[in-house]
């Protein structure tokens, strides 16, 4: 695989990866009948945020150091998703006696609590987030999602490296004149 791609090309790869991740999530929900827990929903929001960053990078296709902005924003989005997925994996690894009890549903919390309180409660976890709905090749869905976010984070890193190496070549060429 050629690594010297433009920011636009990296953005298309990132956008495609996000579309695949959302496609799997929606297929699991609507085809397999698995309802997403609050942590799953936060992970979906992180995928959507990353997709929006990649879409902006595709449209803008910056030159020079401009791609670093998209790289950082994409890394924040995918890193946030990885952190939430990591929290989900940790909750699932707890012994049953240490799993937090199930709280109110996300819809109810969004109606009656401030957003910060909702995020705090969701990230503290609940019993429904600790349930393991199945294994695929020995890994749970949150473990696969964590792997997906780690892989996804390589794309904004590549965008940043591309921007830094492209700007060095540009400046280096100017200095040689």
Structural class: mainly alpha
Could you tell me the radius of gyration in angstroms?
A: 19 Å
Order of helices and strands: HHHHHHEEH
CATH class: Mainly Alpha
What's the rounded overall pLDDT mean? 80
The CATH topology, please?
Answer: Bromodomain-like
In angstroms, what separates the terminal alpha carbons? Answer: 33 Å
Number of strands: 2
Query: Reading side by side through the largest sheet, how are the strands ordered?
Result: 1-2
Count of folded domains: 1
Q: CATH superfamily, please?
A: DsbB-like
Show unreliable segments: 169-177
- SS field, number of helical segments: 7
Tell me the helix content. over 70%
Oligomer designation: single chain
Described by the principal axes of the CA atoms, the overall outline is elongated
Specify the CATH architecture. Answer: Up-down Bundle
Beta-strand fraction estimate: under 5%
